[in-house]
C-alpha cells in the first residue's frame, strides 16, 4: 500500500474543474515532482492533497485512510505543506515561526518541551536559518523566508511533505542545498515528498518520478527519462526542446531550440 493514493479526482473552484479525473500515487522514500504549464492544475493538486480543497468526486487516501476522515490536527501530524506566497505580517521571530511546526503535537495550553525545542533547532540548522533565529520574519529576504518556511514544515516531522515551488526565490547555492536536503531527509526519515517544480532541469536532477500535467489531465507519468521527452514537452508547453545527459553530472538536461 502506498502512503498516498489519489484516484480519479475531479477538483477545482466553484463550477470550474481544474483537475479532471486525475490519479497519482507515491510512497515513502520517493520524491515525486509535478510539472506542467501555468494553469495545468499543479497547485490545485497540492491543495487537494493537503485538504484545503475537497474533490467533487474521486478519493484521496493517506496511509490507506480517506483524507476526509482525518481531523485537522491528525492530518497536520501526518503531512506538512510549504505553499506559495505565504504572507506573514506580524513581528514573529524566525524561531517562533519554525516552532509553529510543533503546534499539532501540543495541547491547547501546553508549552514546548526540550524535545520540541531540539527539533526546532535541528530544522533551522538543516535549512541554514539558525543564524536568523532571533530576527523578525518581516526583516528577511524572500529566499530566507522560503528556507524558514521549509524549516517550519520539517519541524512537523511529517511522513508526507508537500511543496509548491520549494526553490522559488532561492539563489543557486540554496537551490542545490535544498535539493540535497530533501533527498537526505527522505532516506533518513522514510518520508515521501510531492512537489511542484517549474525548473525542469532541477526536477530531472532530484525527482524519482514526474507527473506532467496539461489542462488538468495526466500527459505523462513515470521516471524523468520517460516523461521528459521532446514530444511530451512540445505537447505540454508548445516549444521545441532537446533532451540530453550532462557530460559532468549525468543528469538530464532540457534545452529549448
Description of the molecule:
The protein has 257 residues and is α/β, with parallel strands linked by helices. It has a single domain, classed as Rossmann fold (3-Layer(aba) Sandwich), CATH 3.40.50. It is built from nine helices and twelve strands. It has helices at 42-50, 72-78, 94-99, 114-126, 142-155, 172-189, 200-206, 224-227, 230-237, and strands at residues 4-13, 16-26, 31-35, 57-62, 65-66, 79-82, 160-164, 192-196, 209-214, 217-222, 241-245, 252-256. It has a six-stranded mixed beta sheet with strand order 6-7-8-3-9-10, with helices on both faces. Helix 4 crosses helix 5. The longest helix is centred in the C-terminal third of the chain and has 18 residues, at 172-189. 38% of the residues are buried. The model has no long low-confidence stretch (mean pLDDT 91).
Named CATH topology: Rossmann fold
Mean pLDDT: 91
Low-confidence stretches: none
Q: How would a textbook summarize the main sheet?
A: 6 strands, mixed
- The CATH architecture can be named as 3-Layer(aba) Sandwich
Number of separate strands = 12
CATH level 4 superfamily: P-loop containing nucleotide triphosphate hydrolases
> What is the element string, with H for helices and E for strands?
EEEHEEHEHHHEHEHEEHHEE
- Neighbour order of strands in the largest sheet: 6-7-8-3-9-10
CATH class category: Alpha Beta
